[in-house]
Amino acid sequence: QVQLVESGGGFVQAGGSLRLSCAASGRTFSSYDMGWFRQAPGKEREFVAAIRGSGGNLYNYADSVKGRFILSRDNAKNTVYLQMNSLQPEDTAIYYCAAGSGIDYFSFRMPRSYKYWGQGTQVTVSS
């Protein structure tokens, strides 16, 4: 069982930055594949970024955030981070952290590939 708690959301003007954190419980955090998703009002949950567990260096980003968002993890702190730069109003959403195991490359972007989810943190970007 893994529990995920997101933090770091808030209100920011366009062009600003935020760093989201996702703290995980459990001793096997490093083995989990970790992802970030977001959901805007009236829209489906969409993939943002993911990083493979078990020491892998494979990162995966949605085209809409590539070059602006940076995903990282600190296994010693059981935490994954999402640094969000050059934020735009279309980035406004609830951001969710998710954890899964053995997710293949082609399934990283699918919410159903992840077993554990956090409660979400709101990010609002004003124009």
Description:
- This protein is mainly β and 127 residues long.
- The protein contains no helices and 11 strands.
- It has strands at residues 4-7, 10-13, 18-24, 33-39, 46-51, 59-61, 69-74, 79-84, 93-100, 116-117, 121-126.
- The strands form 2 sheets. Strands 2, 4, 5, 6, 9, 10 and 11 form a 7-stranded mixed beta sheet that branches. The chain has a 4-stranded antiparallel beta sheet with strand order 1-3-8-7, with no helix packed on it.
- A hairpin with a 6-residue loop joins strand 4 and strand 5.
- It starts with a strand and ends with a strand.
- The relative contact order is 0.31.
Give the structure's gist in a few sentences:
It contains no helices and 11 strands. The protein is mainly β and 127 residues long.
Provide key terms for this protein.
mainly beta, four-stranded antiparallel sheet, seven-stranded mixed sheet, globular, 127 residues
